[in-house]
Design a protein that fits this description.
Layout (H helix, E strand, L loop, with lengths): L28 H21 L2 H9 L10 H12 L2 E4 L6 H9 L2 E4 L17 H8 L6 H15 L5 H16 L2 E4 L2 E4 L2 H5 L1 H8 L4 E4 L2 H6 L10 E5 L3 H14 L1
Parallel strand pairs: 1-2, 3-6, 5-6
Antiparallel strand pairs: 3-4
The structure holds fe (ii) ion.
């Protein structure tokens, strides 16, 4: 594990061809305005229904409502906390490159922002999903350790499609669509729920069945990317997902 403060120290090999620079000065006013509109649309709901760790992370990494984040600035705040970096990449990564980056505490981050025509949903991830949705949680030490462990375990399973599918489900029901019980309520922390008004509202209105987090069940739980989720898994604390990633290594490696 990289100690905090040495983010990015590990050299990437498989992911290297996908690394790019974020040209922050090249965003135009309208693109910043799209970011601002997306953030302003999500924040009222999230202030009430997001996990406190997400909201704290948002402040700690210095995200702003009015401008697209400059990843270099985000990393100056994030790196010293947990050793994670939001690292700009050209788009979707093949699994081995993706896992290599997670194992090195570098989160593959797209720099493109969606157009006004697809405010609610983009099939390709964009900087709003990746940074607004994912990166605040990387400021939380336990979540940070969990995500690195997840990457390491998955990288070791590249030869086994079935086991990788189980790991994919663990990712889906935590990192992307995870919820946590806090003060007697179900709170959002998964990036798919944080960054999508429709998905977040679906959960708040009580439509999916919320089960207690259980690694065995999660690893067998099929899901459809294209539909609103019917079942979600709630943890009581982030220690549970960290332990799940440890347990996954024991069972699958
Ligand atoms: Fe995501």
């Amino acid at each position: 594990m990289n100690p905090p403060g040495v983010a990015g120290a590990q050299k990437l090999t498989v992911a290297e061809p996908y690394l790019i620079e974020q040209k922050w000065d090249a965003y135009n006013e309208d693109q910043h305005a799209v970011w601002a509109e997306l953030v302003r649309r999500r924040m009222p709901q999230l202030r009430e229904h997001a996990a406190e760790e997400y909201l704290n992370g948002f402040e700690q990494i210095g995200l702003r409502e009015d401008t697209i984040p400059n990843l270099a600035e985000v990393n100056k705040r994030l790196g010293p906390r947990t050793g994670w970096n939001a690292t700009p990449v050209s788009g979707f990564l093949p699994p081995d490159a993706f896992f290599e980056m997670l194992g090195a505490r570098q989160f593959p981050t797209t720099t493109y922002i969606r157009s006004r025509e697809s405010m609610e949903y983009t099939p390709e991830p964009d900087i709003f999903h990746d940074v607004f949705g994912h990166v605040p949680m990387h400021a939380h030490p336990v979540f940070a350790d969990f995500l690195q462990q997840y990457g390491r375990v998955s990288a070791g399973l590249m030869h086994d499609k079935e086991k990788l599918e189980k790991m994919g489900r663990l990712f889906w029901f935590t990192v992307e669509f995870g919820v946590i019980r806090q003060k007697g309520k179900v709170k959002l922390y998964g990036s798919g729920l944080i960054s999508s008004h429709g998905e977040g509202t679906h959960v708040i209105e009580g439509r999916p069945e919320i089960r207690d987090f259980n690694l065995d069940q999660v690893m067998e739980q099929r899901f459809l990317v294209s539909e609103e989720q019917k079942v979600l898994y709630a943890v009581e604390s982030f220690d549970e997902i960290y332990e799940a990633a440890q347990e996954a290594e024991k069972r699958l490696s």
